[in-house]
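hiii, so i know i said id send this last week but things got crazy w the move. better late than never?? heres the sequnce for the chain we talked about at the cafe, plus the structure i predicted for it. fair warning i was half asleep when i ran it
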Amino acid sequence: MKSKDRLSLSYTGRFYDPDKVSRRGALTEFVDIRRVETELELSGASNLHNARMDYIGHKGFRAGMDYTFYKNDDKQHLVNDFEKEEEQTISTLSSQQVQRVDLYMNDSRKLKKEWMLDYGVDASFSDTRNESGQSINGGNAPEGTFRLKQKDYSMGAFASFTKQFGKKVSLNASLSLQYYKASVDSAGKKKTLWNRAGLFPQLNFTYKVAPSGMLMFSFSSDKTYPSYWDVTPQESPINSYSVILGNPSLKPYRSYSGQLIYILKQKYTILAFCDYVPDYFAQLPYQNTSELKNVFRYENMDYQLQFGVGVIVPFRVGEFWNSQVTLSGQRMQEKLDHFHDLSFHNEKYTGQFKMDNTFTLSKSRPNLKLDLNGYFVTGAVQGIYDLGHLYDVSSALKWQFADDRATLILKCNNIFRSNMPHTMEINQSGQYSRLWKLDDQRCVTVSFVWKFGGYKKKQHEAVDASRFGKSM
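okay and structure toks below
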């Protein structure tokens, strides 16, 4: 008898061109003072290596190890051309190197009366080196120069129970205990960034009301870390008026989400949801009190609260048109009592319309399908921002041939360059500003896929790179 135990090894690599240069321009006009033209060049190289090993036993035991190495070098060169003064140059060189190791062990046991028990432990350790050096007109700028070593630790244990009660009711409940700590070392001075422990419950309940109806309730909780770079004392100028600052006091936030869902006739969905996020963080602007500067920095809020309702309706029109429509409405609320001598408590009602369509243009010789998807959001809030509406339309044309072994795909995303808010407005405690942002992410791609025999692509867990790199 052959053993059903499995051992798998995988490697993932990502590499970015060091010679690619991104250029941005800005024009700043100070009323009755001066006019400044700014040119900003960004370049740099990055590479990521990930190796993963997983062991899966035939009796339910699983164990694995994941190692990730990431390195990034950034160059930023900014030139401010003043109307009646000499131009100013600000050059910044920064680098980041991350090594992270993740370990886990899980096991499953079938108990009496059809109870299923899952339990396990996990641990993670990362070592990060962040460095930055800045010069203004060829001289040094101490406020933009630092060298930091950050270490993150986390350990956790969980237990999960699953039970089927007859043919109508199923229940899954789990509880995870997590401990996470981070510290930073700067020139021999050590500081604890966070040192926390917490319980994170999960619950999934399903009840078959009738042969054509199903009621589901779910509750989940999790935590989200800030990026390694955002907790450094970075200073990255955007133009002559605006600058991005790091926040060494930034903390992780927890999130709690609940959903009540009713599915009718196995296709129509009605849902209600609520999300509560204490210590939620986002990048917010404020006016510097000592100089004429607009500062962007990630800040922990008191909380974010969202709740709403929605419906999902699929439908078909013959063999030609297959569609799904999603409608939702929600109330958003964000609050922060102490925000650089200000406070805010912003609320907004928003709506979303989403539609996904597949049109079968031809079923055989050629086999052509057109995907046309889009959504519209009426607006949102982010801290003191009141975000304007946004919408997105994307499409893909798929041609299958050679007995459906080959697929040629022509795809266009963000056709109207509209998936960012059209306006970002601030009208808070005497502070008023309006920002128009053109973030052109429109992209046209062509891809070709060939299936060899009965090969099926194996699903691999994606590499978590959410905390890596520097954002602008």
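btw The CA atoms of residues 361 and 368 lie 5 Å apart. thought thatd interest u
miss u guys!!
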